[in-house]
Inverse folding.
């Protein structure tokens, strides 16, 4: 694997590659297991840096997920048949019934809200029973600063110039605060 | 009972004094009022500039530039060893900047890089106002707009208005007791806010412990980049003469010229870039000049980001880019006036 591929891969992880280049590299990584491994490793490092990894993770996790997916039966949902037999009069009655039930639900909800005097009742958790919610933390792609430009794509060199310029910015920044705050503050908004 | 002054048998009540004062103010010519507000504004700004010396504080501030918002935590400590500071980005990746005197270290976990900047030029331009503020009164006027509150503290609102269209204006919120700058905005000629920074919380503790200034990211295993750009010129008589900037707004002078490698983004292919630094004391403009290459062909034109405008053009086989907190027309006019020493001739100034 060439150094340029490694650099491209790193740039892709950092969100610095164009969509076309990304597609090309992804196609290549499908054919090249080494490139694929490196891609996964870069993401793992990134997740670890951002503290996005769970405290404990089984090394066989990915394998087990793949296995579970294989065992999962394929579910074919039968196509819903259109209800042609419903007569117009019945249809009308259905409409009224539906509207009436919605109204009843709204009135009940309002009544509950109006009559509530104490604090909102909260769900109690039985002692000894732990509620475990799995939240998937997928970090958003890192975007660089958003230039308003005459060009369709602002070259990274311009960003480099801005970093160098900011180091010497005079005057109106917060007193004593290093102008480098611009360097670290603006690169992370998605 | 209402207190009264007694003179020559006539009593003068406080109400009479107020009426007399209002009458005097009504007949006083407007410039006298304005002059008073201006001197008050200048006095506040001079006190603000002094307050920055040896300041110790910790706080959180928000910086808004165009549609981008950044929130940062700052811990700042003065002292005999020079200023020390730790900045932490509170949004997105936990990037950090550690400053020890003239050495600035930027740690970025995203690209696993550490950039150490040991450029001596930080001494040339500070992040404070020019002292005394009267130095720039030829190009800006000063005014106190009133009072406000920022981060729970009472502030004066001071306006710095440009006297021409070549530069932007500023509004500053200065703490009435400590004279700390708590909020600042950059305003264009249509009174639109382009950029603002404001503290949401600030504390001035008696002593800041050393542990708070240490980085939380070790930087172990990261790629380190050391920037030790040396200024060209100064005491070196053999230094190559910089390019000529043939048009500049009034009051702008060259502060520094150095040749360096444009930051880590081009670390794989570093090329020398000439960097001229110009300032009128408030606004700063950078002129970057480098040898023209194929990749630069689509680079020319205007770009903007908050109060920062840039204009790139090609001339004499070089790419010239001007970056600065000045209007678009100003960066464009400066860029097209840049010429090599052999062509440049005498630098021109604004004809305002």
């Amino acid at each position: 694997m060439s150094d340029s591929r490694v650099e491209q891969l790193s740039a892709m992880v950092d969100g610095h590659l164009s969509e076309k280049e990304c597609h090309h590299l992804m196609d290549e990584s499908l054919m090249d297991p080494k490139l694929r491994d490196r891609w996964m490793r870069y993401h793992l490092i990134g997740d670890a840096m951002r503290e996005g990894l769970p405290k404990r993770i089984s090394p066989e996790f990915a394998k087990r997920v793949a296995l579970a997916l294989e065992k999962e039966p394929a579910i074919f949902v039968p196509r819903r048949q259109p209800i042609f037999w419903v007569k117009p009069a019945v249809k009308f009655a259905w409409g009224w019934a539906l509207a009436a039930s919605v109204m009843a639900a709204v009135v009940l909800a309002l009544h509950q809200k109006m009559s509530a005097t104490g604090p909102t009742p909260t769900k109690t958790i039985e002692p000894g029973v732990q509620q475990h919610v799995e939240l998937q933390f997928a970090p958003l792609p890192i975007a660089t600063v958003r230039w308003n430009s005459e060009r369709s794509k602002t070259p990274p060199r311009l960003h480099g110039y801005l970093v160098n310029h900011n180091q010497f910015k005079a005057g109106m920044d917060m007193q004593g605060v290093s102008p480098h705050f611009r360097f670290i503050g603006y690169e992370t908004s998605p | 009972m209402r207190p009264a002054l007694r003179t020559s048998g006539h009593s003068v009540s406080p109400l009479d004094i107020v009426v007399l004062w209002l009458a005097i103010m009504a007949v006083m010519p407007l410039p006298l009022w304005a002059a008073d507000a201006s001197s008050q504004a200048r006095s506040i700004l001079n006190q603000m500039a002094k307050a920055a010396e040896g300041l110790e504080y910790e706080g959180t501030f928000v910086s808004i530039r165009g549609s981008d918002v950044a929130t940062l935590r700052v811990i700042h400590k003065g002292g005999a060893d020079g200023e020390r500071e730790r900045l932490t980005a509170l949004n997105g990746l936990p990037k950090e900047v550690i400053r020890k005197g003239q050495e600035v270290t930027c740690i970025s976990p995203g690209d696993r890089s550490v950039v150490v900047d040991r450029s001596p030029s930080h001494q040339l331009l500070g992040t404070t106002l020019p002292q005394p503020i009267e130095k720039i009164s030829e190009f800006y006027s000063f005014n106190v707009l009133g009072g406000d509150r920022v981060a729970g503290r009472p502030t004066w609102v001071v306006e710095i208005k440009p006297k021409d269209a070549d530069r932007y204006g500023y509004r500053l919120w200065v703490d009435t007791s400590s004279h700390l700058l708590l909020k600042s905005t950059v305003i264009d000629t249509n009174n639109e806010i382009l950029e603002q920074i404001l503290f949401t919380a600030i504390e001035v503790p008696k002593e800041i412990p050393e542990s708070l200034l240490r980085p939380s990211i070790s930087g172990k295993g990261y790629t380190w980049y050391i920037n030790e750009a040396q200024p060209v010129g100064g005491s070196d008589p053999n230094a190559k003469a910089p390019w000529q900037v043939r048009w500049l707004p009034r009051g702008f002078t060259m502060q520094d010229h150095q040749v360096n490698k444009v930051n880590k983004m081009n670390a794989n292919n570093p090329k020398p870039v000439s960097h001229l630094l110009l300032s009128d004391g408030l606004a700063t403009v950078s002129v970057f000049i480098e040898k023209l290459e194929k990749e630069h062909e689509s680079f020319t034109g205007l770009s903007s980001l908050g109060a920062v405008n840039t204009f790139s053009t090609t001339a004499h086989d070089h790419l010239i880019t001007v970056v600065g907190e000045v209007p678009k027309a100003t960066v464009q006019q400066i860029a097209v006036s840049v010429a090599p020493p052999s062509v440049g001739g005498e630098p021109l100034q604004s004809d305002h």
About this structure: Residues 38 and 134 of chain A are 27 Å apart (CA to CA). The longest helix of chain A spans residues 88-115.
